[in-house]
Amino acid sequence: MLKNDLVLRAARGEDTDRIPVWLMRQAGRILPEYRATRSRAKNFIEFVKSPDLACEVTIQPVDILGVDAAIIFSDILVIPEAMGLPYQMIEAKGPWFEKTIQNKNDVDALHIADENDLRYVMEAIALTKKELNDRVPLIGFAGAPWTLFAYMIEGSGSKTFSKAKQFLYTQPQLAHQLLEKITQSTINYLKGQVKSGADIIQLFDSWAGVLAPHQFYEFSLKYISKICDAIQPLAPVTVFAKDAHYAIGEIAKIKCNTIGLDWTIDPATARAQAGNKTLQGNADPCLLYSDEKTIAAETKKMLSAFGSQRYIANLGHGLYPDIDKEKVKFFVEFIKNYKP
Ligand code: CP3
Predict the structure, then answer these.
(1) Residue 8 near residue 137 (C-beta atoms within 8 A)
(2) CA-38 nearest atom, ligand 1
(3) What pTM value is reported for the model?
(4) I need a labelling partner for 85 at 20 to 30 A (CA). Which of 3, 156, 199, 289 fits?
């Protein structure tokens, strides 16, 4: 039995006696403890593949920041790698793939991954679950198929993801075949995560915002929905489609429990469109560059606008590396002490 199950209760639409909070990218570079653990691995990939190190940095924010959930330390790019596209994480630049997907042969050559290809994540989850000792829930995650597709075509990050979008316009059938393979791999992977101990799952569609609405529905939400159909009977699912706030009404129709929001939508508008789904978000991470008085005032506005039920407080995207951890602690404490 979990000692603190507030995040799960909120996701399931049950009453919570205070608003739960966790932070995207809480396991990361704002903590000197993270950097110390990271330096024990040869590089980022080896770090991700070391269950004991991953477990350590997953638990650090629970101890240091006092958040109401842990999120397993890994990366969304482990799926492309397991399917046959290895990547490197280049310091200060981000991910880079030596091989990308160009044509049908490339798509056909990809392997449909399953949990056995990602044993190291399963081990990290099982170990973390044990070490957490039921203090807080453990969040498992995956990239949404469109976001993974974008990296697999583009080969790196991009402002426009124009190569990936070109693929949608010029090879739509093949795009669907690739998205289907990613979806099947992701379903296998997430089933394994839940079996290994993940209490709740989040899908990150970080690049939803480069798509036009009709493309988002056809090439992204359709596949997110398939994943929700397969996973939601096993664990609550959160869908975070960054910059796709026009789609909240459509996301509310699929089998997810929680809709993650970025800061470009106000809470009342989101509530009006989200039906009875739980909402998560949506403070601008840059708020945490300001002073405590401003953080308190803006956070209070956010909390009262969302209301205290069916709500999980979070940022609207991940923490930036240069945010002061004391400000992060202040934000978390403010939310935990908030009384409506
Ligand atoms: O704390 C957590 O949120 C859990 C761990 C986590 C990481 N990546 C670790 C990481 C999670 C949930 C992710 C998801 C992820 N990875 C996304 C979706 C969320 C989002 O931010 O939009 C994306 C797009 C990626 C791909 C990725 N990984 C990029 C573009 C980069 C480089 C840029 C950056 O933000 O550093 C990474 C590297 C990465 N993944 C780091 C961490 C802690 C930084 C690596 C380091 O220097 O230690």
Answers:
(1) yes
(2) 48
(3) 0.97
(4) 199
